[in-house]
Amino acid sequence: MDLELLTVGTELLLGFTVDTNAAFAGQALAGAGVRVVRRTTVSDDPALLRDALAEALGRTRLVLTTGGLGPTRDDLTKKVVADLLGLELEFQEELWTALVERFARMGRKISDRNRCQAEVPRGAVVLPNRWGTAPGLWISGELGEVIMLPGVPIEMRGLMTHEVLPRLAPRTSARVVRSRTVRTTGIPESTLADRVSDIEATLDPLTLAYLPGLEGVDLRLTAWDMESTAADGLLQAASERLRVQLGDHAYGGEGDDLAGILLDECRARGKTIVVAESCTGGMIGQRITAIPGSSDVFLGGIIAYADRLKSALGVPDRILEEFGAVSEETVKAMAKAVRERHGADLAVSVSGIAGPAGGSPEKPVGTVWFGFAGDFGVAAVRWVFPGTRDEIRARASQFALFGLLRHAKSAGA
Amino acid sequence: MDLELLTVGTELLLGFTVDTNAAFAGQALAGAGVRVVRRTTVSDDPALLRDALAEALGRTRLVLTTGGLGPTRDDLTKKVVADLLGLELEFQEELWTALVERFARMGRKISDRNRCQAEVPRGAVVLPNRWGTAPGLWISGELGEVIMLPGVPIEMRGLMTHEVLPRLAPRTSARVVRSRTVRTTGIPESTLADRVSDIEATLDPLTLAYLPGLEGVDLRLTAWDMESTAADGLLQAASERLRVQLGDHAYGGEGDDLAGILLDECRARGKTIVVAESCTGGMIGQRITAIPGSSDVFLGGIIAYADRLKSALGVPDRILEEFGAVSEETVKAMAKAVRERHGADLAVSVSGIAGPAGGSPEKPVGTVWFGFAGDFGVAAVRWVFPGTRDEIRARASQFALFGLLRHAKSAGA
After folding, report:
1. Distance CA A23, CA A37 (A)
2. Residues B338 and B201 in one domain
3. How many domains is chain A partitioned into structurally?
4. What part of B 93-122 touches A (C-beta under 8 Å)?
5. Is B47 near chain A, with CB under 8 Å?
6. I need a labelling partner for A167 at 20 to 30 A (CA). Which of A248, A299, B10, B208 fits?
7. How remote is the C-alpha of A284 from its chain's centroid?
8. Contact by Cβ (8 Å): B90, B44
9. CA distance from start to end of chain B
10. Angle between helices B46-60 and B77-84 (to 10 degrees)
11. Is pTM beyond 0.90 here?
């Protein structure tokens, strides 16, 4: 089943808005066995929209539009579609009543301008929108079918998932494009490739993509044009093989944050965590506390950005003077001090040169020292990260979480 | 001058990649007086790409493509374009030499697979790519002109800015679409609208858009289809009027972070800052330290997530017991203690209920108390923010920075 996407909005063409709807729709449709063969974006211009719509229907007879269903005069999609398919717009009293009630619930007064949102092309199926005011519409005409969804991302996603995909399901082939991600961290891409090369050679018909990012390399397995149960089975088995092969370098799937994995691990073992951050400036704490319920594991810590806060924490001045703030001795002292001060099981400390200034031949920009303290004692490791200031800080935060996870898992911690 | 954008890549249609190139290209071209009338995305399929290209050239005779210039067999754009325009591909020795040298500089060995990247359609202008390996190409044929850029965002942006726009400039009309953003914070959208309504009524021919986000409401002024000098003059004057009217609620322009404005203000006044963060968990420190050179103003602070860290900081236990961690008394004690401990000029403290759990009728999810300490003494303010956990934390961080900025500017601080 082939379909074309038509996204409508002057702000999309002008680049004021990034078209995230298109990506969501593409993934959702491919995963349900619908092939998106082309995507077109046009401005809020009725003639240009009409042309693009007619061309798309001529190619596939099935078009999904996003945008242009709101109450302002820029919102032309419904009118243009009805016009092209030769259908009149009818005012539906029950849609209007629902709209008036919705506004009342939100304590707002509805305007006459919204009346057009209760107009529906004759014979269209109305897709109820629980997330906003403009319902989706599904129209069939001689030229083909048009599914219209609003452009607001949360509304578009809700309607796609709960109204469009279930209605398409009986008509799609069972053949789908689906993927599954295994996140990895703390291992360079080339080493990773060596480690999984034996598995990679036997993945066919799945493909494997390496997606390097600031949190590590994501491995994306994809099943192309395959029966859905077979696809899910192969993806499950292959991701499991990758996880076993990569040990603790592999964690979670698409959208999972290492901080969440760390919290689960610590919670299961009854361990608490504190941090002492210099160059990351609070980023590690911020990532951990982004996870709901982190307070039973994460106590807090120190942002020791200036050297005098490192001293106040308990790093001896002679260490700062002799070895500098970015050194093995300093991060060890930071980790030990913050752990003891707050009576935590595990502590991590970070001190580095995020740049752009401050580098030297011995300690180039990107140099970061990490300290860890626990029942095992104190340990430190140095890493040199590539990239901009933001990138170095993000990579360092991820590495700190990875180190904490390793120490939380090890028996002696 | 009308142009169509053609973005090429199966991963775009499948939604694995969000098409940020399209947004960048749209803004850059509109700002230079080129009207992007349509954007089309096709997969890495030569027949579908050829169809879409021929149709686009038929409409505008000027097409800009992104993607499909790499060394793999998926990279078909150059071949398809040359084929459609009836031009042969020629191997260019000097391009190959440059490529070999580039690989050598990066310590990598070039593969024969890369030879195709030195092939150029006969008569094409080569646009040198300083950011990667695939040069851009500009071809004219009987059917029209095609500008080809690589899909890697940093390469696409560099080539657009330094190679494409300067070459288009002599041919474009002087009429452009340009916008300018005035960022605002600490003021609700409805109050903002009231405050600027007199100015808004006199902006014509500029338009004003309200773009609410987690850091406040951005005001975007846009000049549509206007001579470029006139557009810049009107945008400059209007944004200045908005700034004057909104006082310290207005700060910076598109892409500016309030943290940078705060650091500049403090630096100019020789003031230092510390933080004591509970529900934001390090987010304020992280945002401040994201700005290079923040160390002369920002000393660091405490992530007092667990109550025992609030006690350790110096919040009396009877305050925590009597008023709770999310209270005026607690944030005042936190701000006072962290300022005194580290001898800073200004301190902010934050304690709130970010949810999703932990709310109560008296203190619903979203309730956040802020404390400020300085030469003026100690102050506190409460705010209730809407949204998810992430959104509440982001809004609270922004409000903390805004409060610090106000206190830094006030004489007594």
Report:
1. 13
2. no
3. 3
4. none
5. no
6. B10
7. 18
8. no
9. 55
10. 50
11. no
CA distances from A351 to A303, A314, B283 (A): 11, 15, 18
Q: How many CA atoms lie within 13 A of B355 on its CB side?
A: 21
Token duo for residue A184? 């990895």
Choose one of B221, B251, B281: the last residue of a domain. Answer: B251
Record: contact B282-A279, CB cut-off 8 A? no
Q: Looking at residue A214, what DSSP letter applies?
A: T
In A208-267, the residues whose Cβ lies within 8 Å of chain B are 220
Residue with structure tokens 């997530």?
B305
Same domain, A266 and A367: yes
Alpha-carbon span B196 to A120, nearest angstrom: 37
Find the distance separating the first CA and the last CA of chain A, reported in whole Å.
55
pLDDT by residue for chain A (413 residues), tens only, comes to 899 999 999 889 999 889 999 999 999 999 888 989 999 999 989 999 999 999 999 999 999 999 998 877 778 999 999 999 999 999 999 999 988 988 888 777 888 888 888 999 999 999 999 888 889 999 999 999 999 999 989 999 999 999 999 999 888 877 889 999 999 999 988 889 999 999 999 999 999 988 888 999 999 999 988 999 999 999 999 999 999 999 999 999 988 999 999 999 999 999 999 999 999 999 999 999 999 999 999 999 999 999 999 999 999 999 999 999 999 999 999 999 999 999 999 999 999 999 999 999 999 999 999 999 999 999 999 999 988 999 999 999 999 999 999 999 985 54
Determine the residue type at A229. T
Q: Give yes or no for B10 touching A (CB within 8 A).
A: no
Residues A271 and A387 occupy one common structural domain = yes
In which domain, by residue range, is B158 found?
2-171
Report the C-alpha gap between B128 and B131 in whole angstroms.
9
Chain B residues inside the 8 Å CB shell of A25: 15
Both B237 and B153 in one domain: the answer is no
Q: Is B23 on the interface with A (CB under 8 A)?
A: yes
Q: Please report, as a single letter, which amino acid is at residue A260.
A: G
Last residue of a domain, one of A137, A171, A205: A171
* CA–CA min distance A357, chain B (Å): 8
SS3 assignment, position A226: strand
The ipTM value here is 0.87
The number of C-beta contacts closer than 8 angstroms across A and B is 219
Judgement on whether residues B312 and B231 belong to the same structural domain of the protein:
no
Beta strands in B51-206 (DSSP E): 62-66, 89-91, 119-121, 125-127, 136-141, 144-149, 175-184
